[in-house]
Design a protein that fits this description.
The structure holds two protein chains of two kinds.
Chain A (H helix, E strand, L loop, with lengths): L1 E10 L7 E11 L4 E5 L6 H9 L6 E6 L2 E2 L5 H4 L3 E4 L13 H9 L13 H12 L18 H12 L6 E5 L7 H18 L2 E5 L3 H6 L3 E6 L2 E7 H5 L3 H11 L16
Parallel strand pairs in A: 3-8, 3-9, 6-7, 7-8
Antiparallel strand pairs in A: 1-2, 1-4, 4-5, 9-10
Helix pairs in contact in A: 3-5, 5-6
Chain B lengths: L2 H28 L6 H17 L4 H26 L3 H20 L3 E3 L18 H24 L2 H11 L1 H6 L4 H27 L1 E3 L6 H15 L5 H24 L10 H31 L1
Antiparallel strand pairs in B: 1-2
The chains are: A alpha/beta, B mainly alpha.
């Protein structure tokens, strides 16, 4: 479903600050597969997600959705296929708009903004029904300003919003990283439900090795803009966090201290 | 204050209500501080007045003046979006250029419309109303109709998308909203409203002048802030109409301050009065909240 061919991304090309963020990513993710993406800070995980979403233009290579070449398509042109949840709970919603207005925006994702009323009672019913899944009482707060909700509540709503429109790809960029453990678990639960319901093709960036192994059916690790390993199937099933760390240490055996990556050890 | 000057104040307040709505669209909705309005208010007036003197139909002249001002907004948006010039600076550049353009349009510093037909001419003597009442009613209808249209627009899918762009660009984009298109549309609409206000001002006051737009932005902002500090609401209709009310109240306050002999103000003190009024309107909600918090604390004790 998602196919990256020899994908390169260079920031500040031709300037002294030039940075090779992605250096030849070849990745094919079949329809319905759930891939977790790990790697240290600056490895290119978010860049890869943002390039697939169209926020960042690739300098070389190709991106295909199915057999459609989307390499040149801007982010807004890809939103009919892609739903996203960001790491920052404030990034996925508009704080100045109400809960229902935010959801209406997601409900119209990928459609042309028309001069018909943005909200109607049919939509409100859908929103209420979806919000009640969270058990946070938000179904009674449709008209509350989003900015008044807590980070966890906003992230929960962002997640529901990503599933309001049919899409085929879900990109999750450390979407539980900024939340407390209990809320993170709730969000992860609903994520799994939504993915199963809609049979989505998923890429989830995470800093937690545990989360990377517990969810999905395939794990890739990025290092300095390249995929350094790709685990799936039975081999992956036998893996523990410490095995991943060993693999990672091997790949990084160019003299760097692993201590710098305490983040990787996270629960 | 005499009835005559009261009605005059009301009339100007209502016309500037359209300016306030335009300023609300850029400052509050799009989060794009836009000083183009100082130039586009004059542009709307200058184009309309010049066309009327040339003998063009008054309605057509008003529409062309409005569209010319909308184009000025597009120029500012283009400088910002295409070349990444800071929005404030882009609008100052357009405003500066418009000063010359306005002089070129008129061919002289001002155009008088004293003996010319205006958009008000067909309504003179209607229902036996004296002109001074008719003018106030006419501009009130224009301002309220403009306000209702804008409020309706902001509640549509397109309008909601525009509000999302001003609130969170990244989220808007992730939901398939073409950010640039919404900024262009918003600046055109905003400056179009301001240009319409300029066109109406020229026709009700009988002249267009190259300096008439100076300070438009501050007046518009004052009206928005006064209106919003008085009516706290989430309803788009209330918010947009409160811009008009804010504009009228601002004009009344200025006029009272200038007319009150014991204060000893003269017309040249206008800018100081404006600054103090805007500051008061900004301070008032904060003081009110602090006072409420204190009261709540006292009630608990």
């Amino acid at each position: 479903m998602i196919c990256c061919k020899d994908l390169h991304v260079t920031f500040n090309r031709g300037l002294p600050t030039e940075k090779l963020a992605l250096r030849g990513i070849d990745l094919t993710i079949p329809m319905g597969e759930f891939v977790t993406v790990i790697g240290s800070n600056g490895a290119g995980k978010s860049t890869l997600l943002n390039t697939i979403a169209g926020d960042i233009n690739s300098t070389k290579g190709q991106i295909l959705f199915g057999d459609r070449d989307v390499t040149k398509l801007p982010a807004t042109g890809r939103t009919a296929d892609i739903a996203r949840v960001f790491q920052d709970p404030l990034a996925g919603t508009c704080g100045d708009l109400t809960v229902e207005e935010n959801m209406a925006l997601a409900y119209g994702r990928g459609q042309k903004g028309r001069l018909s009323s943005a909200l109607n009672s049919k939509m409100r019913n859908v929103f209420r029904e979806q919000l009640s899944r969270l058990n946070l009482g938000l179904e009674n707060r449709l008209e509350s300003e989003m900015g008044l909700l807590s980070g966890g509540q906003r992230q929960s709503v962002s997640l529901l919003m990503s599933a309001l429109q049919p899409s085929t790809i879900l990109l999750l960029d450390e979407h539980t990283a900024a939340l407390d453990p209990k809320t993170a678990a709730l969000i992860m639960d609903i994520t799994s439900q939504i993915i199963a319901e809609k049979q989505l093709t998923v890429m989830m960036v995470t800093h937690s090795m545990r989360q990377a192994l517990d969810h999905g059916s395939r794990t890739i690790m990025l290092h300095e803009g390249k995929i350094i390993f790709d685990l799936a199937g039975e081999k992956r099933a036998g893996y523990e966090v410490k095995d991943l760390l060993n693999l990672f240490a091997q790949a990084k055996s160019d003299g760097e201290e692993l201590d710098d990556d305490k983040l990787l050890l996270g629960a | 204050m005499s009835l005559f000057s009261f009605l005059g104040t009301l009339e100007i307040g209502l016309i500037y209500g359209l300016v306030a709505i335009g300023v609300y669209l850029t400052f509050r909705i799009l989060d794009f501080p836009d000083l183009t309005v100082d130039g586009s208010f004059t542009l709307g007036a200058a184009v309309t007045a010049t066309l009327i003197v040339m003998g063009v139909n008054v309605l057509l002249a008003t529409v062309i003046g409005t569209l010319a001002a909308a184009c000025a907004g597009l120029v500012t948006a283009w400088l910002n979006l295409r070349f990444d010039i800071l929005h404030l600076l882009a609008s100052i550049l357009t405003m500066t250029a418009l000063y010359t353009i306005n002089l070129r349009v008129m061919g002289k510093p001002n155009v008088a419309l004293i003996m010319e037909p205006t958009i008000l001419t067909p309504f003179e003597g209607i229902f036996g109303l004296p002109d001074m009442y008719m003018r106030v009613i006419f501009v009130a209808i224009c301002a309220v109709a403009g306000g209702l249209l804008v409020a309706w627009f902001l509640r549509t899918q397109y309008g909601l998308a525009m509000r999302a762009v001003g609130s969170n660009k990244r989220m808007a984009q992730a939901n398939g909203i073409v950010v640039k298109q919404k900024v262009y549309a918003g600046l055109a609409l905003s400056n179009g409203l301001v240009g319409l206000a300029g066109a109406l001002f020229a026709q009700t006051n009988g002249f267009a002048d190259s300096t008439m737009g100076i300070g438009t932005i501050v007046v518009g902002l004052a009206a928005v802030i006064i209106g919003q500090s008085l009516f706290a609401s989430r309803s788009m209709y209330v918010i947009v109409l409160s811009c008009i009310v804010g504009s009228v109240l601002y004009r009344l306050a200025v006029s009272l301050a200038l007319n009150a002999d014991f204060l000893g103000f003269s017309a040249s003190d206008l800018n100081l009065i404006t600054a103090v009024l805007v500051a008061l309107a900004l301070i008032f909600p904060k003081l009110r909240n602090e006072w409420k918090a204190k009261q709540a604390a006292r009630n608990e004790a």
